[in-house]
Each structure stands twice: as C-alpha cells, then as structure tokens.
Design the sequence.
C-alpha cells in the first residue's frame, strides 16, 4: 500500500510539473490539477496509512487520524476554487488576445 | 476572551458581502455606485480604529489568544494578537484607508464590477494571515488574500492583462501546493500545526526526524520567499505589479510584506535556529537570496522603460532589504527590519500611486516622448524618489542606517551591497525624473483634480512622521523584536492542552 500511494504521488507530481512547464494554458491548468491531486494524497498520507480504521475513537483499537482528512477536504475545496479562477482567466485571455499561449509577446523590460 | 481580536477578519467579510448586495439592490445608477463606496470607506475607517485599539492592547500586555469555537489550543484554531501582528494590522489598515481614498479620487473602482468587495476580501485575508496562530489557517488566509488579489489585479481588464494575471495565478498555485506539502510534512513529523505547539515540539524532536522537519521548514520558508519575491522566485513580480491598476499595486505593497512577516514567524517561533532539528539553515538560505534580490531589483531600476515597471523593481529591491534585515532572526536586525518594513510599505505604495497618476496623464514610458506633467506631480515624485532610494530627510534613510548598524558583523558583504543598491536606485530615479519632467517635450497635460493628490500627500506626511518620531517608534519596535525572539509569552498565552 505504501508503494502504491508513494508511486501514485510521485507519478502525479511528475506529470503535473511537466504539464505546468508547457507553453499553452490548457496543459498548464491540467498540470496544476495533477499537482493539487498529488498534494491531496500526500496530506492524506501524513496521518499514516491504515486499512479499515474509521477516524472515530472507541470503534476500533487504533482509529485513523481524522485531522489530515479535514485538511484534505479544505485543500480540495480551495484548489477546486482556484482551478475555476484560472480556467476563467485562461478563457478570458484566450478570447481577449486570440491565442492561448502562456507567455505574452516579448515586452519591454 | 477579547472579541475585538476577530473583528479585523469578520468585519471586512461581512461588509464585502454587503457591498455586493448594496450595489445590486439599489436601482438608480448613482446610488449603485455610492453605496459600495460608502460601506467600504466606513469599513476601512472602522478597521483602522479596531487595529489601533488592538495595537494599544497588545503593547500594554502579553499576547492574547482568541479560540475559534472555544476549542482549546492546539486542537482548535486560535488567533493570536501580539505586538508584531498588531503592528502589521495597523499598517494594513492605514494602507487600506489611503488606498481607498485614491480609488475614490481617481474612480479606479468604476472600470469593472465588485471592486469594493474584492478590496475588502483582500483586507480580510491580510488581517487573517497576520492574526492566525495556526500554520494551516495561515495557508487558508493566504488563499483568501490571493484569490482577492487575482480579482483586483485583472479588475476591469481583458486580453493582455488577463494573461499577465494568468502567470501570477499559476505561480501562486504552485506555491500553494508547496505550502501544503510542507504543512503535511510538519504534521506528519510533529503531529501538530499550531504555531505555539510547534515551538514546543520542534526543539524536542528526535534525531531521526531532523531531515524531514528541515525539508518541511525550508519548503515553507520558500513559499514565504515566493510571496516576498526573493531571487530566484522573483520573476512573477515585475509583470504582475506593472500590469495591476496603480491603486491595487499600492495595496499589493503590503502583500510582499506578508512574506516577511511569515518568515519572521517561521524563523523565530516555528523553526528557531536554536532547535537542534533546524539549525541556522533558514538564515543561511534567506540572507544571500535577500542580498541578491536587493541588488537585482536596484540594478533593474535604471533600465526600466516604464514608470510602473520602475516602481515594481524598486518594491522588489526594498523587500529584499527588509529580508536582509530580518534573515538573522536576531532582536537588533528585527528592530531595524520592522522599521524598514513600515517605511518601505509606505514608500512603495506612494511610488505606485504616483506612477498611476502619471499614467492617467499619458506619461508612462521613460523616454522623453511623454506630455509635460503638472508641477505638483513633480514635487510628489521627488519626495517618493527620496523615500524609495533611502536618502535623508525621509524615513528610508533611517531605516537603512538601522539595518547597516544591526549588520555590522557582516559589514564586508552587507555594506557594499546596500550602499551600491542605493546608488543604483538614485541613478534610476534621477533618470526617470529627468525623462518624465525635464525632457518631456509634448503638450502640457491637463492638470489633475486636487483630490487625487490627497492620498500621496498623506503617505508623504506619514513618512515624515515616521522620521520625526523615529526614536519612540524604534523603542517600541525594539520591545516588539525582543518579544518576538523570546516566544515564551506567546506559548504561555496559547495555554496548550495535552491529550489525557
């Protein structure tokens, strides 16, 4: 399980970083989404990985830590909102300037 | 519990929603514009009042804690009011009032919808970031602050400015991801995210956890350095600040200082150098980066082709100097650094406001092709150049002097960089001033209404006051720095409870 989660986080981070470095806005937005998913999984794993352990004290001998789950929830909500903002801005820039490149034309220093 | 502590967060949140309601409920076009302005103005003044009250309370006694939902720390989220957070609250509130004066005077809020709501949410995020005593809550308030700043930066814009905004958003989203990774590592190692609890637990970590907590600390400070635009994370700043509306860029002057504030909290409270797990790594990384930032920003000022970019590079250089002063996390450097933070926030705001006024009159490029500008603007530009370059008689000079004095041990490297940077700034401002006001050969631009000079004049007066009362201010700041470097009172105020 540790190998599965760790390699999933690593793969998604690598994909995200690669896509963020692309020239068009659509891959960049996708890359940011990948990165935020990787981060969510990482936060989840910071409470230690346990199978079949509800985050409720008293049900099982060793309940899982509820705090990372709450943190993940907050992080998901925030990254979802941010993705919505960046998609809107990307669409606005696409129709305002006529292309969806991330870098503007070379401008004066 | 002292309920005033949460007022700087709740008040703008409620009023921000109220401006949207008031704007859409009133049918006549004039009321449609007046109501949001009135609400925001009253709200900003009320925020200033609350901030001053909190400042008085914080300087009279020990740090105070506000438990959200009355959950005891470290299980619940707390807001902590100490001298440092009260100082930053007052600075933000002052900038909020002055910025809003200029927004109303120049009509910057009429270029698009919901300017005032975004403005108030921006203040809410800033205030929350300064007050919170919980590292994850700091992340949340960073996001509140950033999402409002995205809206403000592209307010009333399309096309090219949206694309410049896209950079800013993408960079900050990556920064947020790094922040979350750092928080998850901190939680995984220590089991807490309360700053005071971290201050207790990080020094007591076993040796096996040193590497993990050190990586987490460096990642977190890297995010703060990104907010403060330290080299090599500075590339987003010039484009963002130069493309943002002038009044918004003036408010953003305090946004980079959030990075300085958070770095102070990290270096003194959460990850102090005295903890064997951390060591001097934060200082070793921040100090050289800050020196390079200072020099790079200053070197770009003489080469800037537009006034807005010049102001952005000057702001970058001044944030670099503030980081140089605080990077040692020692009381003397913090005193000097905080004095310089106050000054440089006011000075950067002033420069952005003046750049905005010049651009309103068609003088943007610094190549002598612009219309001639009114004389009063020249006087204000002169004052702001003196302030930003750090020449006497304004407070920038005293700030630099204090920083040089505090850094006497590092004189061989510090003095040439700071003085050389100041020289480059003087050259840059002299060049810009002569291009704008002497070489400009076009028609005389129509005069600006007198009300647009009020906010810049107020900033100049504030800096003059900061110079005249430099003695009492530095005395107060020295006590603040002493309190920050000895977090025992901060930890006691949190009344940390442990699991039974």
Sequence:
């Amino acid at each position: 399980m540790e190998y599965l989660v760790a390699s999933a986080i690593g793969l998604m981070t690598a994909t995200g970083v690669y896509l963020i470095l692309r020239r068009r806005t659509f891959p960049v937005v996708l890359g940011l989404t990948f990165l935020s998913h990787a981060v969510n999984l990482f936060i989840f794993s910071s409470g230690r990985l346990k199978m079949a352990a509800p985050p409720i004290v008293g049900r099982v001998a060793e309940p899982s830590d509820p705090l990372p789950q709450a943190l993940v929830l907050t992080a998901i909500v925030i990254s979802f909102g941010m993705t919505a903002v960046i998609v809107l801005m990307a669409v606005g820039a696409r129709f305002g300037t006529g292309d969806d490149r991330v870098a503007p034309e070379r401008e004066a220093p | 519990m002292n309920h005033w502590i949460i007022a700087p967060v709740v008040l703008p949140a409620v009023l921000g929603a109220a401006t949207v309601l008031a704007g859409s409920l009133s049918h006549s076009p004039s009321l449609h514009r007046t109501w949001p302005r009135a609400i925001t103005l009253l709200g900003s003044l009320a925020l200033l009042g609350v901030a001053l009250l909190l400042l008085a309370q914080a300087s009279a006694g020990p740090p105070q804690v506000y438990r959200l939902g009355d959950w005891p720390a470290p299980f619940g989220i707390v807001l902590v009011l100490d001298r440092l957070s009260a100082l930053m609250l007052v600075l933000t509130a002052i900038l909020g009032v002055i910025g809003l004066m200029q927004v109303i005077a120049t009509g910057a809020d009429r270029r698009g919808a919901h300017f005032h709501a975004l403005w108030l949410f921006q203040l809410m995020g800033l205030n929350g970031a300064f007050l919170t005593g919980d590292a994850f809550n700091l992340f949340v308030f960073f996001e509140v602050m950033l999402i409002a700043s995205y809206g403000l930066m592209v307010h009333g814009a399309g096309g090219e400015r949206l694309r410049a905004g896209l950079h800013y958003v993408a960079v900050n989203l990556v920064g947020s991801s790094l922040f979350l990774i750092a928080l998850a590592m901190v939680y995984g190692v220590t089991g807490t995210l309360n700053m005071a609890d971290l201050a207790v637990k990080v020094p007591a970590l076993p040796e096996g956890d040193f590497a993990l907590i050190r990586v987490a600390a460096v990642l977190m400070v890297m995010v703060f350095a990104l907010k403060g635009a330290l080299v090599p994370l500075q590339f987003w700043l010039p484009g963002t600040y130069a493309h943002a509306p002038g009044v918004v860029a003036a408010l953003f002057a305090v946004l980079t200082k959030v990075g300085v504030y958070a770095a102070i909290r990290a270096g003194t409270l959460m990850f102090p150098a005295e903890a064997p797990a951390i060591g001097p790594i934060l200082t070793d990384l921040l100090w050289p980066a800050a020196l390079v930032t200072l020099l790079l920003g200053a070197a770009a000022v003489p080469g800037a082709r537009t006034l807005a970019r010049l102001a952005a590079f000057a702001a970058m250089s001044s944030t670099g100097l503030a980081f140089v002063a605080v990077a040692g996390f020692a009381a003397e450097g913090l005193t000097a650094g905080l004095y310089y933070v106050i000054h440089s926030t006011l000075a950067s705001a002033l420069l952005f406001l003046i750049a905005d006024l010049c651009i309103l009159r068609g003088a943007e490029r610094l190549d002598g092709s612009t219309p001639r500008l009114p004389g009063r603007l020249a006087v204000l530009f002169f004052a702001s150049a003196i302030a930003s370059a750090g020449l006497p008689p304004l407070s920038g000079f005293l700030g630099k002097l204090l920083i040089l004095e505090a850094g006497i041990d590092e004189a061989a490297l510090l003095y040439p960089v700071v003085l050389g940077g100041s020289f480059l700034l003087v050259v840059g401002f002299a060049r810009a001033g002569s291009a704008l006001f002497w070489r400009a050969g076009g028609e005389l631009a129509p005069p600006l209404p007198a009300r647009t000079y009020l906010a810049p004049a107020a900033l100049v007066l504030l800096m003059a006051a900061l110079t005249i009362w430099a003695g009492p201010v530095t005395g107060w700041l020295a006590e603040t720095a002493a309190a920050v470097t000895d977090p025992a009172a901060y930890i006691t105020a949190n009344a940390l409870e442990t699991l039974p």
Remarks:
- The radius of gyration of chain B is 22 Å.
- Chain B touches chain A through 35 residues (CB under 8 Å).
